[in-house]
Amino acid sequence: MRNSKLVSLEEAIKRSGLQNGQTISFHHHFRGGDKVVNLVVDKLAQMGFKDLKLAASSLSDVHAPLIEHIKAGVITGISTSGLRGALADAISHGLLAEPVVFRSHGGRGSAIANGELKIDVAFLGASSSDELGNATGHGSKSICGSLGYALPDARYAKHVVVITDDLVAYPNMPQSISAADVESVVVVDSVGDSSKIAAGAIRDSKNPRDILLAKQAAKVIINSGYFQDGFSIQTGTGGASLAAVKYIREEMLQRGIKASFALGGITAHMVKLHEEGLIGKLIDVQSFDKVAAESIAVDPLHKEVSAVEYASGQHLGSATHALDIVILSALEVDTQFNVNVLVGSDGIIRGAIGGHQDTAADSALSIIVCPLLRGRIPCVVPKVTTLITPGKSVDVVVTEYGIAVNPGRPEIKEKLEDAGLNVVDIKDLAAKASSIIGTPDPLPFGNKVVGVVMNRDGSVLDKIYNIE
Amino acid sequence: MVTIEPGEGLQIELQSSVAAQFGRQIKAVITETLEALGVKDAHVQAIDKGALDCTIRARVTAAAVRATGKDVWKD
Predict the structure, then answer these.
(1) What confidence tier does B73 reach under pLDDT thresholds 50, 70, 90?
(2) pTM of structure
(3) What is the ipTM of this complex?
(4) Best residue in A346, A376, A434, A466 to probe B by mutation, most B CBs within 10 Å?
């Protein structure tokens, strides 16, 4: 083909004009199966690059090899939605001189769109691409579905390299990433192991506590006043959250209520309800499993959106603004309804902001579902270890010991009480937890800032200190 | 898991996933439980993954019963 953009990875890097000190970006649609970050950073190290800033939509266990690249000075800065595994552990202990900047998915989209996060070269893995860079999350070797988190990078990065393991004939359509945004196309053996996007088939949780929490969450939704024909909903992938969908479905069938759309990370559960006619449309920034990834390719009412369209707090057109109900999880909730989903109660980073801040802030009703205790670790605490989602965005907290309603939403409290639900004071939940486990000793935090948590408006919400 | 060996005084070796926040409390529960059973000399190894106090008490009691052959539940 004339104008082919097809080159080797090394040639693509040379062509990009990448310099030491610049910012490279990646998406995480392959989640635990991602191969692109390690592949590219290994190559950059080999080519002698130093002092690069890595702007990922998220990082996970599979990115532990970055530890060596940080030690060698190849990577000197990171921004991400989350960190897990050995890399998170090392960073929590002070591996990186510069603090990691944590942003929500919507916050990252905004920061890229408004120029706060400038990307010099985006390396975007795709399950298929043609020679000009029309790329998608569907291919013969891998499938990740929506490429929503990669779309702001594709649009705003100065230089875009598409990396694929399935080169298809032009035109690859409908495309997620447009050839108009792409400078180079690189073919590799594998961009990701799609079987690691979601572990195994979706099963209904058999954990009795999850089922109890799910039933309570469903009752909150059904009696909240927002459960009306045409409502919209987003759920997480946790056992309780998925199980709640099952009970909501039963109630929808019984009352003849249909949802207008489901948003977010789309799961097989949501696809099933959509195919049954119970949810009109699916708005998908990230396909959480194979069923969702396959559905988005063939169903015109299952739509891919960018992180900006999904959850930007700075773009009024983002979908979260139209969202009625969101069910979210938490590592910790405190008596001010603040939520932590990033730092474990051992002080070590072990999670991701994801869309938590965004959906909680913009939805009409945000529900946090978490057990009172996980083993000896309390989930309802006097003060969160790290502030991720401010309490003013959080409306209801569902635990197996009762349901707490934010004092800012007295009308919801009244509705839930009228429905006979066990509404309690959140301070009583924290007291109940400490009566069982005792009062934890303070964590051995040091003085070095290892992470900065951004709010979605670009302000700093909290700092994470090193753990000793 | 709790294992008990002969020792001098009470020595407690604790490995816990919640050591930073609860190590002190867990050691106190082990000490109290053994003292209540009249055990004054023992080397205790405890591997904990965030169990509640009631569970720790039961495990320490079971280990002491097996180590001494004295069944505190039956006697």
Answers:
(1) confident
(2) 0.95
(3) 0.87
(4) A376
